[in-house]
Amino acid sequence: MQRSFNEVVQQIIDRDSRYEKEAYIFLKEALEFTIKQKKRGKTETGSHVNAGELLDGFRQLALKEFGPMVMTVLEYWGIRASDDVGEMVFNLIGAGVFGKTESDSVEDFHRALDFRAAFVAPFEPRGSRSANS
């Protein structure tokens, strides 16, 4: 009997409660978004996504979905850095939901995306620091 994604996520959360269920659902959506983006740009048939590609898709989708509230949402879910995304990815790999290649490693996510630059800076007023000086 095949378990649903929600059932698998609940089992992961029972073992590792650092991240909310919604975070895993969003991560799956980000992977699907990234694969679609990748297929649009290329004609290759493979759908493997590396850490950098996934984090870029995650960033794009998070900004699109949550706008200026993105950091609030991510922090509520327990995601504070790209390392957290990597931990979630490898939780899903361990549960057999996501696949990986021999070269994929959780370390690929370590400081791979600066959350402040990705999710805070786009919404800061331009030149506000120099104007207040």
Notes on the protein architecture:
- The protein has 133 residues and is mainly alpha-helical.
- The protein has one domain.
- 59% of the residues lie in helices and 0% in strands.
- Helix 2 (21-41) packs across helix 3.
Question: What is the gist of this entry?
Answer:
This protein is mostly helical and 133 residues long. Helix content is 59%, strand content 0%.
Gap between N and C termini, in Å?
Answer: 64 Å
Q: Tally of extended strands? A: 0
Number of domains: 1
Mean pLDDT figure: 91
Number of helical stretches of at least 4 residues: 7
Rounded to an integer in angstroms, the radius of gyration calculated over CA atoms is 16 Å
* Inertia-based shape: globular
Low-confidence stretches: none
Percentage of residues in DSSP E strands:
under 5%
Biggest sheet: strands, sense, closure? none
Write a concise keyword list for the protein shown above.
133 residues; mainly alpha
Secondary-structure blueprint:
Elements: H1 5-15, H2 21-41, H3 51-66, H4 70-77, H5 82-94, H6 115-120, H7 128-131
Helix pairs in contact: 2-3
